[in-house]
Structure formats: structure tokens, C-alpha cells
Amino acid sequence: MSQAVTEDVAQDAEQERFEAPFDMETLTRPDLLTTSLGIVVTDWNPKRVTGTLPLDGSRQYYGFLHGGASAALIETLGSLAAVLEAGPGGMVLGQELSVTHHRAARGSGSVTGICTPLFLGTSVATYEVAVLDQRDRRIATGRITCQLRRRGARGAEPERKA
Q1: Mean predicted confidence (pLDDT) in 8-14
Q2: Which residues belong to the active site?
Q3: Buried-state track 78-93, b at ≥16 Cβ within 10 A, e below 16
Q4: What is the bridge-based pairing of β-strands 40-45 and 91-101?
């Protein structure tokens, strides 16, 4: 291969690398709700964010997974996906969250959330989060929409006349 082709391949590989604007230390700070609930983000990239939520400590009175805990998992994964979409220096503002509960999560262990994009726009992103039990049955489906404030996304402010 020529040196120019080798350099082009190296540049393409560099562009394909992905660096998240957060790390595991940031996601597990003791003051976060996600830490209190035991949510663990297991994988993140711009196309898919996954995480788990333990059933122990997340139950409601009847012993099933609390719907609010499912919603917290859904919002966590969707918001992190939106942060990845907004890019470095961007900001994310939650706009809407809806959750449909399909079946009760029982027993021990954890549930898994899988977040994928439904719509990625310039200033809005919508995600679906499937929450699955340990037998890979869907127990809930969430949809979250976030406003994206991308750094440098706006053009220069027009000059104002006095």
C-alpha cells in the first residue's frame, strides 16, 4: 500500500473510534439516583445503550418491580443516549417520558434495558427502551424524547442595530 492510502485508512479508523462524554466513575457517583437504585450501564455507543436494574430494593408493596424504578431505568438509558447524540459540550433536556408496563417482573436478579433511537433530529431525539426480564421477556416499553442543545449548533448571532 502507498503511504497516502495507509494514512487514509488510519484516519478512517480514528474517525470510527468512539469516545463517550462520560465514564463509569461519572455514572456511579454516590449522589445519583441511578447509584441509589443500583442501575449499572453495561454498554454505550451512539446506536445502543444498555443497562441493568436489580429487583432487590426496587420492588413495590406486592413484591413486583416498581413501575417508577422501570421509568428511572428508561430515563437513565434514554438520557445517556441523548448525551451521546448531543456530542461533546452538548446539553440534554428531558421533554417527555412514557412507559407501558406489559407484565410484572418477579423473583430475584435484575432486569435489562435496551435503548435504541427512534428519531434523531437536529434539536430533538426520541428513543425506545425495551425492559426485559431474565428470561428475555419484555416487561415494559418506554419512550423518551429529549431536546438536544448541541455545542456550536447555532449559527452566529446576527448583528443588532442600535
Answers
A1: 43
A2: 75
A3: bbbbbbbbbeeebebe
A4: unpaired
